[in-house]
């Protein structure tokens, strides 16, 4: 059924993409994307996060121009169920309508993590990469980061979810607790595969892949920042080809001593929960109401 604010003429004739690993940052999506890519029935986007459909291009980047669908099609290769892993699309106000216009039959997987843990991990990543400073803000303190919607909105889900439910039925969304992917990976992978409408596949869930964890992450030096900026100028397709042999060998060029140093070692405390409580608790209650996904165990963590 076409949404009231979009006409039949605005819907593409065929699916450019079939499914989305819709979110969220720091919820195990890198691990999941690598494991799902084992399945020959799945054509995962290269890079994992093409960031072309949504206006949100990573934590800080925003681009209001309409997506170039011809270029977008180039991030997929081969046959199979095409999956876009641009996790920042979940919080983008324009993404639901854009996705619906491309493929109203899309299916979505949303990886969730206890919201304060997620925000804290995201904040540390940004600090280690110094992206806050490069984008004209200072997240040296967690409270400053939480006060910025570019961090906070990925830990407050109900408003974003309501935007997606305006265009897609709740049955098109599979909500997965990232903790379940750690403790019961085979069960989670089976459910995701079936949700995509694909036959069962035996994944190697123990395969070591780059999970982008804080234990392995290092803070970029000034030289590292320049180097990463230069890498970002390389077209997505060429960058993916260059990165593939490094990924297979579990090599991260950003960990070289001249490019990076050991990252922030701060730990999550009750103070961080107090900072987020007034925003997060009512949002979790509302998110459970509209989705049926149980959040009570996370709400209880604030007591």
Question: Can you describe this structure?
Answer:
The structure is a single chain. The chain is α/β, with parallel strands linked by helices. The protein has one domain (8-217, 263-291): P-loop containing nucleotide triphosphate hydrolases (Rossmann fold). The chain is 41% helix and 11% strand. It has helices spanning 29-36, 69-73, 95-102, 115-129, 131-134, 142-146, 149-152, 158-165, 178-183, 185-195, 222-232, 236-248, 270-291, 296-299, and strands at 19-23, 42-44, 56-57, 61-62, 81-84, 107-112, 173-177, 218-220, 260-262. Helix 8 (158-165) packs parallel to helix 13. The N and C termini lie far apart (43 Å).
Features:
Rossmann fold; 303 residues; 9 strands; 14 helices; alpha/beta; two-stranded antiparallel ribbon; 5-stranded parallel sheet
Mean pLDDT figure: 87
- Counted up, domains total 1
Order of helices and strands: EHEEEHEHEHHHHHEHHEHHEHH
Strand neighbour order, sheet with most strands: 2-5-1-6-7
Cα-atom Rg, whole angstroms?
19 Å
The largest β sheet comes out as: 5 strands, parallel
| Number of E-type strands | 9
- The class by helix and strand makeup works out as alpha/beta
Tell me which CATH architecture applies here. 3-Layer(aba) Sandwich
- According to CATH, the homologous superfamily is P-loop containing nucleotide triphosphate hydrolases
User: Given the structure, what is the number of helices?
Assistant: 14
Overall 3D shape: globular
**Residue runs with pLDDT of under 50 for 5 or more positions:** none
Oligomeric state of the chains present here:
single chain
What is the percentage of strand-forming residues?
A: 5-15%
């Amino acid at each position: 059924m076409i949404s009231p604010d979009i006409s039949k003429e605005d819907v593409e004739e065929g699916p450019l993409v079939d499914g989305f690993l819709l979110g969220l940052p720091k919820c195990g999506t890198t691990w999941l994307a690598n494991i799902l890519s084992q399945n020959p029935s799945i054509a995962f986007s290269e890079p994992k996060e093409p960031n072309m459909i949504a206006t949100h291009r990573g934590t800080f980047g925003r681009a209001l121009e309409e997506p170039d669908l011809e270029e977008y099609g180039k991030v997929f290769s081969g046959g199979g169920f095409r999956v876009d892993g641009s996790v920042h699309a979940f919080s983008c106000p324009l993404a639901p309508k854009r996705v619906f216009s491309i493929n109203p039959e899309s299916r979505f997987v949303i990886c969730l993590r206890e919201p304060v843990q997620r925000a804290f991990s995201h904040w540390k990543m940004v600090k280690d990469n110094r992206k806050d400073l490069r984008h004209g803000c200072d997240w040296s303190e967690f409270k400053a980061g939480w006060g910025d919607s570019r961090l906070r909105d990925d830990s407050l889900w109900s408003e974003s979810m309501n935007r997606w439910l305006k265009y897609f039925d709740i049955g098109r969304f599979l909500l997965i607790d990232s903790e379940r992917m750690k403790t019961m990976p085979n069960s989670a992978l089976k459910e995701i595969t079936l949700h995509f409408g694909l036959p069962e596949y035996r994944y190697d869930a123990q395969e070591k892949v780059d999970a982008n964890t804080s234990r392995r992450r290092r803070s970029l030096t000034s030289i590292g920042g320049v180097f990463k900026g230069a890498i970002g100028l390389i077209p997505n397709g060429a960058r993916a080809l260059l990165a593939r042999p490094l990924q297979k060998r579990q090599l991260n060029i950003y960990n070289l001593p001249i490019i990076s140093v050991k990252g922030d070692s701060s730990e999550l405390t009750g103070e961080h929960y107090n900072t987020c409580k007034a925003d997060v608790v009512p949002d979790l209650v509302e998110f459970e109401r509209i989705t049926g996904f149980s959040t009570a165990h996370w709400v209880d963590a604030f007591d």
